[in-house]
Write a structure and sequence with these properties.
By secondary structure, this protein is of the alpha+beta class. Helices cover about 60% and strands about 10% of the residues.
């Protein structure tokens, strides 16, 4: 037990494990009290032995590198804006000014690396959207509309204008000034010829007792300054993490982000399960029913007239109706036309099946995420079903497209109006499904009509057609 490894486990105890023997003094009563190593400067400040730990040096390194990096960032931004502004007259500087907007990306990457000096917890970047295609232009256009890009640019400007001078001032007042006071006896012995010494170039010390007293005061100020540097570095790191890092795991913002992601994953899993059920029914039960219908048809042709032929004809008809019902069920679960050809073709197919004539004007030159296409299709299908059952309309219209990063759908009919999404229309569940995708579903149906159902879902292209 005292050899640093427990028999049977083959793993050494941590260096900071402490042993406490029981009252009998035997090894069997030994317990381990673990003191975990601090992972952040806040934990280090509240632990004993902070002054003798590496954390003060890490805080100083973080603030000093911040002062240097901030000054370099300021010079780089000013130079880029100056050159871009001068060359913008001949349009050559416009690309440089656009690229200056992306200056926050490398600065944020550097800041996330510097955070490791003061925070052992990794600071990953915030999630950004993937470009719809490969190449510099899709990447540039995606990053320019991404919120994280402008957040990082704001951090770079704040870093270059305000934060690095504060870093330098914190080091100067909390470290350089106490060190200068502490060195008073040394200054008196060297520069003052043993007769006098200037303290911070403000006060003169002329006796050795006073010099040593000031030096002792400097040590006290240095200890207090070390704690002040830890506080300053910790606050500075929290601000940087809030601007350029992802939310801390377990924090409120992280829980909200994870909740939104889990909702999207559930929708994706639900759609995948629907497609699997549709595929299994289409390739399994439907094919068996087709084979059964064909076999009954052949048997009906070969059977002589009589009761047996009548029973075969009845069975053949029932099998045909079961096959039609199964096909409708498969189409309702997840239509194959939606999976193969996309939302416009699926909406056109739903319009053809509608009991009310429908005009379709849907412009989508590409494919959208599967969950978005599925949600939009089922909204259209439910809306057309309501038009056929309740509206008394003579005609309906479906229009929309993809505008400003959103799928927009409008379903309008010339019926009697008075529809209520909360009273048995089936749209409440669809509204919940659209809201999971951060979308919005609204219904306008005054008495006398017309009825307008609007759907907006934020999304990007997954595939563009030429």
């Amino acid at each position: 037990m005292r050899q640093g490894r427990e028999e049977g486990w083959g793993r050494p105890y941590p260096r900071d494990a402490h042993w406490t023997d029981g009252p009998d003094g035997r090894t069997g009563s030994t317990v381990i009290r673990m003191h975990p190593r601090p992972r952040t400067v806040w934990q280090a400040l509240s632990a004993r032995g902070y002054l003798l730990s590496p954390w003060p040096w890490r805080a100083v390194a973080y603030l000093v590198t911040g002062a240097v990096a901030g000054a370099v960032t300021l010079v780089g931004l000013v130079a880029a804006l100056a050159v871009g502004g001068v060359l913008a007259v001949v349009l050559v500087g416009l690309p440089l000014l656009v690229l200056t907007a992306l200056a926050g990306i490398p600065v944020a990457r550097m800041e996330r690396h510097r955070l490791r000096l003061i925070d052992r917890v990794p600071a990953p970047a915030r999630a950004v959207r993937q470009p719809p295609a490969t190449g510099p232009w899709p990447w540039l256009s995606t990053r320019l509309v991404e919120r994280a890009t402008w957040r990082e640019l704001g951090h770079a400007l704040l870093f270059a204008v305000l934060l690095w001078p504060l870093d330098a001032l914190a080091v100067a007042f909390a470290l350089a000034a106490p060190l200068s006071v502490t060195a008073t006896p040394l200054l008196m012995a060297t520069a003052g010829g043993g007769e006098e010494a200037k303290v911070l170039k403000q006060w003169t010390v002329t006796t050795w007792p006073a010099a040593f007293g000031v030096g002792a005061l400097g040590l006290l100020l240095l200890a207090l300054g070390t704690y002040a540097l830890g506080l300053a570095a910790g606050a500075r790191a929290e601000l940087a993490r809030a601007l350029v890092g992802a939310p801390r795991e377990g924090g409120p913002e992280a829980r909200v982000v994870e909740l939104a992601r889990s909702r999207v994953r559930l929708v994706d899993a639900f759609e995948a399960e629907r497609r699997r059920i549709e595929r299994d029914l289409h390739d399994g039960a439907q094919q068996r029913l087709v084979a059964l219908t064909m076999a009954l048809g052949l048997a009906r042709l070969d059977a002589p007239p009589g009761p047996l032929a009548d029973q075969l004809a009845k069975a053949h008809g029932e099998a045909g109706r079961a096959l039609e019902e199964l096909r409708e069920l498969i189409h309702g679960i997840h239509p194959k036309v939606l999976a193969d050809y996309g939302l416009p073709a699926a909406v056109a197919d739903a319009a053809d099946r509608s009991a009310v004539p429908v005009d379709v004007a849907l412009e989508l030159p590409g494919r959208l995420p599967r969950a978005v296409e599925a949600a939009a299709y089922f909204v259209v299908r439910e809306a057309l079903a309501n038009v056929g059952r309740h509206s008394g309309a003579e005609r309906a219209e479906i229009s929309g497209g993809h505008r400003d990063g959103r799928l927009v759908l409008r379903i309008r009919d010339d019926g009697r109006g008075g529809a209520d999404a909360a009273v048995g229309s089936g749209l409440t569940g669809l509204a919940d499904r659209v809201s999971v995708l951060d979308g919005r579903l609204s219904l306008s149906s005054p008495p006398g009509g017309p009825t307008l159902l609007s759907v907006e879902i934020p999304c990007e292209w997954t595939e563009r057609f030429a």
